[in-house]
Amino acid sequence: MFGYIYKKDVAIIAVVLCLCLGVGSFFDYQISSALFNSSSLFGRFVEAAGELPFELTASVAGIMLVRSARPDSKASKWLAALGVLINVGLVGYEIIGSLRVGGKLIAFQLVLTFALVIAANLIAYRLTRDTDSDELARWALMVLAVWVAQAIILNVVVKPLWSRPRMRVIEVTPGLNFQPWWVIGNPDKWSYIAAGVIKDGFKSFASGHTAHAAIGLMLAGLPAAAFKEKPSRRRVVFWTAAAVAALVAFGRIVIGAHFLTDVSCGFALVLALECLAARIAYPGGVQ
Description:
Layout: H1 7-35, H2 41-49, H3 52-67, H4 74-101, H5 104-127, H6 133-162, H7 167-172, H8 189-194, H9 208-214, H10 225-229, H11 232-254, H12 260-281
Helix pairs in contact: 1-12, 2-5, 2-11, 3-4, 3-5, 3-6, 4-5, 6-12, 9-11, 9-12, 11-12
């Protein structure tokens, strides 16, 4: 058991991801060609709301930091302030992003995001009403550590280094060819950007939306009394979050933002980080 994550569950997902990576290695372009639909409402919705699992998990983590504050601990008060800043930042990010894009779909996504995040926080707050403050802080900091680590790895290292063009950019850009996932770097990237192709069009590998969605798996690690009374509930949360991440991954392929190998590697990266973080935070496992 990796902390709160059962090794059997990790093994099942790992096998599925390896199969997807293997299939994608041979049929990435063919799969995306068959599924690509730039006007797909599902794909557009996932593009707008696909990061909801991360935002929800991060918001709950922030609230748990606030809840973990103790009058006799200055450090816990600083962590509580961090929790407040996280939630304020998430609200501002959602509102500003929605105003920039506009439209009924974005408005619906904004309302849905706030409704689900508020509901999740109320449930988490109730489930952890008798939980030790140090346990809440440990879980919350573990969540934030995974998010920071994956953000640095994806956005600072992997995406700039690989510079893999997205399917939807390939389809509308003459001369821009499909790039297999194992090819690192695109020598023609800057010439296409100079010709008018947006820089974001070369950030296909790996999928950030899928990675963010996979962070929702960490909700299974919430130190809730309900999970200790019935450990099976932890697995229900884990697999529900895994299913949501899979839907996000599918939506990213449909809209032409990523290939099968992109979403597989994005999911795999976060799953590995979660297992590592859980082992460090909970060396003896949890009940």
